[in-house]
Amino acid sequence: MPSESPRIDSPSDTPEPTTPDWRSPWFAAGLALGLCLVALATALPLRDLPVDDKFIVAVYARNIAEHGEWAFNLGEPLNASTSTLNTLLGAAAGLLGLPIPAALWWISLAATAIAIFLLIGLTLPMPSGTLWLRCLWVSALIAASPFIAGTYGLESSLFILAMVIIGLAVDRGQWSLAFIAAGLICLVRGEGVLIAALLFPVAWIARRRIPLPVALWTLVPTVPWALFSWWQFGTALPSTLAAKRLQGSSGMFPGDITELLGHLLMDISPALGITLAGLAIMALAQVRRWPPSVYLFALFALIAGALLWLWQIPATSYFWYGVPFLVVALWISGEGIAAMPTLLGPRSGLVVALALIAVIPWLESGQATWLQSGYEPKRIEATLYREAGQWVDAHAEPGASVAVTEIGQNGWHMRRRLIDLAGLISPEISVAIHRDLDLTGWIRLEEPDLILLRLPNDRIVQNALLGLPGFAIAHQTIETFGEPGGVQMTLRSRTRPLSEAAEEFERERRARLAALGDSASAELAEANARMNFAERDEVGRLAPADDLTVTHEAGEGLILETGGSDGYLWLPWISVPACAVGTIRLTLDVEAPTRHRGMMLQVLWRGTDAEGAVAPYGMIEYPVPINAGPVEVDVTVAGHPQMCALDRLWRLRITPWNREARVRLVRVELIP
Q: Are 34 and 388 in contact (CB under 8 A)?
């Protein structure tokens, strides 16, 4: 009997695999979709975070869509929109009838999602070593970052997407795509020019020949905009860069890129900061194996960070400047992740890498403390801005001008000509702040019809304005929004020219002073003699400043050294008629380990009213120059309502704050 031949199973009889193929495109798509859902879940709680600058973009987009003007104030061509591409996308949404601020938020989410799909979809299904570990790490951190989600509506996600395209294209040798994306990133934000410039030598080294033909692709998106911008505005860069540089160097807008990066890595997620540092060390161990994109981004971060530091950009005020640095840190640390199977062994290295990829994004998503610490006041501010804008729209003349410290939300709600006290759309104001350290010069320059100030944030500007003789007469409060003691906004209307009101006020003050006779002059002279510090062994008293040191040196005055804003010095021996004081003249010498031109000095006074009761204190924060030698600073207090309410002035307080400084207070003199 013939033996039975062995049975050969047909393909249909082969059992189906019981585990998914994690290298399949379907698995990659599913993972990318999951990370996109993580990004959505992280972003939704911050969706109504009222970042004012995204409303600046929205105002530009609305004016383009409705009026065909690239301007914030209609009829005044000026490019103060940081991102050309984001503005055009917002304008396209406006032309389609979509709500522009919401559309900008969804555009950011879409850009983040596309970046994740590119990172996962182009690497995970391919047997390309451990490149997929790096891309999975970068994708997971981008998806879970509350810092990135807090910038939705701005151009940050578009910048991330362009960086991802450039990085992947460079590592895959697709140089034409890389240079096209480099051109687009220049339109996303100005510092993209650095990536485009650095891409040329990186391509030259990688290709071993001059990449001129492919580099010309960079010009395709950039040249048309550059020509239009030069023709329309006289420059290819937004005016905001110059304004922010002047803000930073003035010393009145603290916080540079080093402080921002510290907040980014340690305040939002300490675990992320520590992990990135460890992975960077592992990446450095593999520096000879780095792909070209890592060198490109590392050089970009070094140069961009150095420029932001040298230009003294107040980066903590514009926290989205940190997003590219975060992406670079993730990209470099991804090399440390990818090196783990080599350095720690195939199995243990892979387990550690995947554990980090799973745990660190989860920790990061729960550490939104830095953004959310100021979230509630910002939410209240947004409500009050809307109420103030509706009031102005209903009551102010169409041609009225409104002076504000934040232009985005006000510009979106008011539809009036805005005067920007920070100088972003009013370059002459930022120049004045930088040149003269003047917080009030704009009121004479512009003579605004309305002034909207928010408290407590704008107290520096408000106190400086209240010190102007006649201001309280010329600009009277007509409406208040918010609750006393909390976030509050006051709207003032101009009733007459400030110069006219100042003359009226001074006549009244002089009349009160004359009624007191010679006794007021004698008391003023006695107080000034007592404040000659060179003749005193005992000077004032301290309260309660642990970080403030005061020393008296014969012939040199008081030395005030402070590293914060809690230290102050009371000068309690003053007792003079309040109407006899028009100006407090401070003779001082300021030294500080800072690159800024100025710092803030706070002058606060107390006194009694006509009945002898202690009256509310008055306060002015005044900018003073740094390292300029002895200088006389005249703080005008005559017009301040609290000073006017006093019968007698009996105490002064001097506080250097917001910069580490050594202030030599040589003399305080009360000027009638």
A: no
